[in-house]
Amino acid sequence: MAPPTTIHKFESEEQVAVALAIYILHLSVKSIAANGTFSVVLSGGTLIHTLRKLTEPPYVSSTDWSKWLIFFLDERVVPLDHPDSNYKLAYDGFLRKVSIPESNIYPIKEKLSPEEAADEYEERLKHLVANGTLKTSPTTGFAKFDLMLVGMGPEGHVASLFCWHFQRFEKKKWVTFITDSPKPPPRRITFTFPLINSADEIAMVVTGEDAADAVKVALGKHYADYYPLPVQKVSPEGGLTWFLDKEAASEL
Ligand SMILES: O=C(O)[C@H](O)[C@@H](O)[C@H](O)[C@H](O)COP(=O)(O)O
User: Which pathway does it serve (predicted)?
Assistant: First the structure.
């Protein structure tokens, strides 16, 4: 059965940021009470800016940051201090402003090829499942994160799973790689759909008018028979919640 999908539309990106912070904090309290931790997967892109309210009062003091575990949905294979690094983006815009212990943050390993970096990240996730740090999905056997925060490109890509690129069809691997990403830089690693869809909760966070056409394809009523965009394959075991501003929702 398809998971429940909730669509929130807001007048402004500022309202998206506030609603997103409240939604995340609510989930953090629930997960920490249930598991003792809150495992969160971050995208790059505009999402990190939209997370800004979490770092500000009153939200910043409404969660136990020491229980958060941070992972990366996709990452550019560059040094962690490179301007293209999603880790650097997340660190500068979010992580350095809150008190998540460094040992709870899982960036990619540097100085590996894309293939090696993907394999190493997958092995690390499997180890965290084996030692009980991460939950596992009883249905798929993949790791089950409490929350994935997913952005979407204007042509409907999510993570580094792009239209017309085979990585979107991966069934077995947890993490794979791409060396010809149409969005620069070309060398990246990315979670696969089976891992993404094993999540408890996914928030699709999409703002700005560039995204409006793909939002219409993903959520509109008349496009179901066309070849699906990557974003249309997002279907987590738990809930799916869309956060849209007026511009992103303008074609709905
Ligand atoms: O490496 C990346 O670029 C991101 O992780 C990517 O998957 C991003 O989430 C989308 O491209 C949306 O990006 P925007 O929100 O900037 O459009």
Answer: Carbohydrate degradation; pentose phosphate pathway; D-ribulose 5-phosphate from D-glucose 6-phosphate (oxidative stage): step 2/3
